[in-house]
Amino acid sequence: MFADFLKRLIQPAPEPLTGGDARLALCALLVRVARTDGDYSASEIIRITRIISARYDLPQAEAEALRQEAETLESEAPDTVRFTRAIKDAVPHEDRLGVIEALWQVALADGVREADEDALLRLVASLLGITDQESARARQRVMGST
User: Fold this and answer.
1) Where are the domains positioned within the chain?
2) The domain at 19-145 falls in which architecture?
3) Which of 12, 54, 85, 109 could make an S-S bridge to 44, C-beta 3.0–4.6 Å?
4) What is the distance, to the nearest Å, from the Cα of residue 11 to the centroid of all Cα atoms in its chain?
5) Where do the Co-chaperone DjlA N-terminal domain residues begin and end (predicted)?
6) How many other CB atoms are there within 10 angstroms of residue 14's CB atom?
7) Angstrom distance (rounded) from CA 62 to CA 36
8) What SS3 class is residue 59?
9) pTM value > 0.90
10) Can you state the percent helix, strand and coil of the chain, rounding each to 5?
């Protein structure tokens, strides 16, 4: 099902993703962050579904279906760099801070700050052109709102 999508992502110079593909790539990145520590918890699944629903103005059932597609894509995808490149190409710089904030929401959903998740978020932020300071402020906003 995702063979064409993955094929486009691994091209040396992939075309920018359009709406639905960019959405799926972002959701798969959310799943990847949640799975990084080896514990894909119910709280993380719920948080991802809520983020998808709010970000894309989707009803619960559609957000859950998109999350499930993203789970499948994430498990088949080759690496985080390609997801991040696709998102960077599809999302304007000013909106990427929202992406980082959503990723921090997922990483912190289980109430535990894991070193693996921190490392992945540092990598993703850098690849998205987000500074460590901007990412730290996004993390602090998330921690302050929970």
Assistant:
1) 19-145
2) Orthogonal Bundle (1.10)
3) 109
4) 20
5) 23-140
6) 14
7) 25
8) coil
9) no
10) 75, 0, 25
